[in-house]
Amino acid sequence: MLAEMVKVPGLDGEKMGKSEADNAIDINAPMAEIRERYKRKGVTDQQRKHVTDPGDPYNRCKSVYAVHEMITEGERETREIAKACMNAQISCVACKTKLCDSIAKILVPFQERRAELADRNDFVREVLHEGGKTARARVKETLAAVQDKMGVIIY
User: Fold this and answer.
1) Are both 80 and 109 inside the same structural domain?
2) pLDDT value, residue 1
3) Which of 7, 29, 91, 150 could form a cystine bridge with 33, CB 3.0-4.6 A?
4) Same domain membership, residue 133 and residue 113
5) Are residues 80 and 65 in the same domain?
6) pTM for the model
7) pLDDT at position 24, please?
8) Does residue 53 sit in the same domain as residue 83?
């Protein structure tokens, strides 16, 4: 259902999308680049002018805290970050750093595995070929039944 879809906020707090390269994070980018981009462009509570000002991560943090809620492991951790923000116990920079740590936990293993496979084209092709054969064998019977019920005749 469309109402239940998740909107991933980009760096500016609007919807992240690959057509908006300046607003998105490339999953192949080095973590140092991702950290720098969030540090410079990630939108936090813009009404929070000083570290000692309490923030509102739920309503005024347009990109950083929203992504925390999606990827930071454990609801307790995200609530602690929100509470620290609201009590001016964490800076926006520290919040962005924590977010990037959470991103790294997910992204770095993916990037490492991708790099391993990038040098093994023959292996990747073989896996795809064998997977295709398996898929075709699994759907062959179902496809034949559907074609029969629809009256499709293959010559």
Assistant:
1) yes
2) 47
3) 29
4) no
5) yes
6) 0.75
7) 86
8) yes
SS (H, E, C) the chain: CHHHCCCCECCCCCECCCCCCCCCCCCCCCHHHHHHHHHHHCCCCCCCCCCCCCCCCCCCCCCHHHHHHHHCCCHHHHHHHHHHHHCCCCCHHHHHHHHHHHHHHHHHHHHHHHHHHHCCHHHHHHHHHHHHHHHHHHHHHHHHHHHHHHCCCCC
Residues of the chain with pLDDT under 50: 1
> How is residue 5 written in tokens?
């879809």
Closest-CA residue to 42 (of 98, 89, 110): 98
Tell me, yes or no, whether 114 and 126 share the same domain: no
Q: Domain containing 97 — which CATH number?
A: 1.10.240.10
Identify the domain containing residue 132 by its residue range.
120-155
CA 25 vs CA 7, 59, 154: distances in Å = 14, 23, 47
The total number of residues written for the chain in this structure:
155
C-beta of residue 62 within 8 angstroms of C-beta of residue 12: yes
